């Protein structure tokens, strides 16, 4: 079945994802090594092709509209799959290149693994790494299935058959739009109030969602479920509902003032980020080196 013409240009969707992550068309253009006018023209072509407004443009820069955030969220899987395909094909072309497959939950994949992989590359310059980003439940399933020897998760639950070791710690942060009533609360909110409030949240199986539910001792109330942190941040910034995200993911947004942190007064929202591999198996080679880097570089 041929692809619909609206979605065949993955480069434009990748550019949109860069705008979402970097906060401006100019910085996205620089990352893609094209001029800003060329990037703007490509994004306008994408909007015309889809019949949707994806960017809110002002004299201060461009941000994703709520519709744009949703499109970026949906496009992420296709763009990541294309990148994985390209890496796999490149590895097959060069029989001398060693290949390491790693699966990681979204927070680890976006905010921690890049630094770890740079350090690994210095030790293994001929190593090709294929990164599979998924939620914690899917990462555990892939390690159990033998698709990858090493994974990284942020959720508290693990199926039997896996060994786990903490490599870093993280803290969950409640965030709201600056105009939200909670933003004016000096003493924050209680765990009971948070548990009863509809949230913009990740999908079932997400480590962040499960860690929050374990800390609160109850299931969360999803107002909107999205599969990427970037989409959640945009939905919170443009809406009137809170979200709970990794502190790693919201540092820049809090500094920029697009989101406001709200303390939770009576619950500990710290969590462990863990490396996982099949029980009874010893890590060797690049897998062992990556684990050592992760456990020793980032605290």
From TrEMBL:
UniProt cross-references to InterPro entries, sorted A to Z: LysR_HTH_N, LysR_subst-bd, WH-like_DNA-bd_sf, WH_DNA-bd_sf
Listed Gene3D superfamilies: Periplasmic binding protein-like II, Winged helix-like DNA-binding domain superfamily/Winged helix DNA-binding domain
Record-given protein name: Transcriptional regulator
GO MF terms held by the record: DNA-binding transcription factor activity; transcription cis-regulatory region binding
Pfam family, one: HTH_1
Domain HTH lysR-type, first and last residues per copy: 8-65
Family membership: Belongs to the LysR transcriptional regulatory family.
Species, as recorded: Dactylosporangium siamense
Alphabetically ordered keywords of this record: DNA-binding, Transcription, Transcription regulation
Sections of the chain in a coiled coil: none
